């Protein structure tokens, strides 16, 4: 085989490998099994429990829901530290990809 054909073949193989690597990376990002509403409810319940155990958070003032890898938190907190603590607790859940913390800091 001449050098031109060998170089062209190697280039094609490199391109194929890059494409394969990109596809593998995309597959790893997306769950293969869609998240069920029951699974979302279980995650939300666990989140509520973990939030209730944090001394900086008054969990009874919060509403937590989970959908499609997103955690939604609404309600009131007493400080910026409390609001940040919510995010830190949620970051401990690998199944949560995004946090939507819509809590309001209500002093008093």
UniProtKB/TrEMBL annotation:
Q: Which InterPro entries match?
A: BON_dom
Q: Which residues form the BON domain?
A: 39-107
PROSITE patterns noted in UniProt: BON (PS50914)
Superkingdom of the source?
Bacteria
Protein name (database record): BON domain-containing protein
Biological source species: Desulfonispora thiosulfatigenes DSM 11270
């Amino acid at each position: 085989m001449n050098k031109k054909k060998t170089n062209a073949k190697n280039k094609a193989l490199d391109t194929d490998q890059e494409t394969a690597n990109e596809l593998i990376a995309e597959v790893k990002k997306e769950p293969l099994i869609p998240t069920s509403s029951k699974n979302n409810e279980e995650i939300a319940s666990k989140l509520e429990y973990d939030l209730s155990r944090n001394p900086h958070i008054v969990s009874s003032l919060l509403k937590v829901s989970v959908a499609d890898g997103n955690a939604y938190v609404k309600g009131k907190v007493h400080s910026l530290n409390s609001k940040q603590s919510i995010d830190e607790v949620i970051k401990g859940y690998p199944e949560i990809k995004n946090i939507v913390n819509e809590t309001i800091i209500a002093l008093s």
